[in-house]
Amino acid sequence: GFLWVVPRVPAPVEAGDGAVYVPLLTHDEQVDVLERLDFVLRNISELRKEVEELRSSLQHLAAEIIAEVRSHLEETQKVTRRRRFPFPRERSDSTGSSSIYFTASSGTANTDDGESEGGYTTANAESDYDRESERESEEGEDEVSCETVRTARRDSLDLVNEDEAPLILDSSLEEGLGQLLQQADRLHNGDEQEKREGFQLLLNNKLAYADQKDFLWRLARAHSDMCEITEDADEKRSYASDGKEEIEIALQKWDQSAECHQWYAILCGQLSEHESIQKRIQTGYVFKEHIDKAIELKPEDPQSYYLLGRWCYQVSHLGWLEKKTASALFEAPPTATVQDALQNFLRVEELSPGFSKAGRVYIAKCYRDLGNNSAAVLWMNLASELPANTKEVAVSVSTH
């Protein structure tokens, strides 16, 4: 509680009488002022927490930049011409096992996949780099560079010379790709274990199909699946970061692919959950931009309207502090209404009835917010008729 001293002023009455004091504010007005003051103080406390979070992220920025620059310098110093071997090569100067090892875990550093061959980690990466640095001045000498990156790694595969890799799939590879994509889609729609199997399946085939659009966006989708089902916060961030890198490569080649824009938006949203409030707000703009592009390219895809509906609903429920922060950081803060969200969720039902259980729940929420309780009850009942797992992507849409 606060000790509130009500100011009083002399209010002269009849002549000759002394001045009496009356309060400037009535009791109800005092209560209203106290409530407003309490509201302001709570928001100041929340803002202080956000400022501390921002300060912390800035402190890490310098270290991240240094790490990225060092990584880039190491990459550029490596031998650019690499020979592929179908089997692990014995190394007489290595300590421990001489085989190439691949793991299924995800790392955390940025890589240039234009120079790396898909991004794989070896057990002897540091010693490889030391030996290559010593011999980089010897022209004409063939080297094998096993780059250390932090993208997800894969089990051993037969590797081919990159100069001989075909740009166009022959009939057998194309047929194999079709079967692979069907299997990946089936596993993606399964339970957690099946999603893990789908992720590993795509990693195991990355070398063969890394230049195929439909393969790459599914690989990014698999990273998103792993981000959702993983409990550890660091692993979640790693999967989201790696998936975002994969889909960025795809977008550079196929910027007219609705699926590439869609999954780029989703992975940006997942990654922003582990970043500062400023980055989350910034990501909200990126998310909306790429979902709009996906709808432009493929206007009959219910998934994009579901994601846009989620974005609109969250923006319509931004609190005072979030709105003020967005206004301070950007000239035009994001705007959307509950009605905007409702129209997008209804569009999902129009395109594919029963596409999303969560979408029907959001329709009910929108009607409740708009004061139409009977419609809200109807859509909650319709949502209860659907199975727990429907077709929409399970993802947090970041706007703040």
UniProtKB/TrEMBL annotation:
GO-annotated molecular function: microtubule binding
Keywords assigned by UniProt, alphabetized: Coiled coil, Cytoplasm, Cytoskeleton, Membrane, Mitochondrion, Mitochondrion outer membrane, Nucleus, Transmembrane, Transmembrane helix
Biased composition (Acidic residues): 135-145
InterPro entries: RMD1-3_a_helical_rpt, TPR-like_helical_dom_sf
Protein name (database record): Regulator of microtubule dynamics protein 3
Primary residence: cytoplasm
Pfam families: RMD1-3
Biased composition regions of type Polar residues, renumbered to the chain: 94-111
Protein location: Cytoplasm, Cytoskeleton, Spindle pole; Mitochondrion outer membrane; Nucleus
A GO cellular-component term linked to this record: nucleus
Topology term for the membrane: Single-pass membrane protein
Residue numbers spanned by region Disordered: 80-146
Family listed: Belongs to the RMDN family.
Coiled-coil region: 37-64
